[in-house]
Write a structure and sequence with these properties.
This protein is an alpha/beta fold. It has helices at about 5, 10-20, 55-60, 75-80, and strands at about 30-35, 35-45, 65-70, 90, 120-125, 125-130. Helix 3 (about 55-60) links the parallel strand 2 (about 35-45) and strand 3.
Length: about 160
C-alpha cells in the first residue's frame, strides 16, 4: 500500500486486490520457485504512514536466496540496503517530481521521495529503481516528468 491507498478505503482496496488474485505483500514475502532457483518477493507497507514493518519481513526471509523488496517510498532504500538482504528495491511515490524544469532537480518532492526520486540507483550492494508512475497529485499536471510503465526482465547470473 502507498500513502494514497491509506488516505482512502484501505480495507476495500485490500479486499478488491484479494478478490482479483493479487497476493498481499504488506509486510510479507512471497516465494517463487523455478526448478532449483528461488526468488523472494518482499513488501513493506507504507513507510510515511508508519506501517512499514521491515522487522517482520526479515523474520520471514530465509538467510540465502535472491530477494526483491517492494517499498512505495524510494528513500526507504537506505534502510533496506543496510540489511544486506535485498538485491533490488522497486519503488514509486515521487511521480518523478511531476513538475520539473530541464536540467534541475525537482522543486517539489514528497517526504520519503526526495533523494531517489526517479530512475536507477546503486545503494551499497542493492539496486533501486524508482518508477515515475502514471498518476498525479495536487495539480493535475506533469511537466518534464513523463509518466512511465517499466518492464524489468530478470535473469539469473549464469543465464546465456
Amino acid at each position: 500500500m502507498g500513502n494514497h491507498d491509506h488516505e482512502n478505503d484501505t480495507q476495500a482496496i485490500i479486499i478488491t486486490l484479494k478478490q482479483s488474485g493479487v497476493f498481499d505483500l504488506n509486510n510479507h514475502i512471497y516465494t517463487l520457485q523455478r526448478g532449483n532457483a528461488t526468488l523472494y518477493i518482499a513488501g513493506v507497507d507504507d513507510v510515511g504512514m508508519g506501517k512499514a514493518r521491515l522487522d517482520l519481513v526479515l523474520q520471514q526471509l530465509p538467510p540465502q536466496g535472491a530477494a526483491i523488496l517492494l517499498a512505495h517510498e524510494p528513500d526507504f532504500a537506505n534502510t533496506s540496503a543496510a540489511t544486506g538482504k535485498f538485491d533490488l528495491q522497486l519503488s514509486g511515490h515521487s511521480h518523478g517530481g511531476q513538475i520539473r524544469l530541464p536540467f534541475l532537480r525537482p522543486l517539489i518532492l514528497p517526504p520519503w521521495g526526495e533523494k531517489y526520486y526517479a530512475g536507477e540507483y546503486q545503494i551499497g550492494k542493492m539496486l533501486l529503481y524508482t518508477n515515475r508512475g502514471l498518476g498525479m497529485t495536487g495539480l493535475h499536471l506533469r511537466l518534464f516528468a513523463r509518466p512511465e510503465i517499466t518492464i524489468i526482465t530478470l535473469a539469473s547470473p549464469n543465464h546465456n
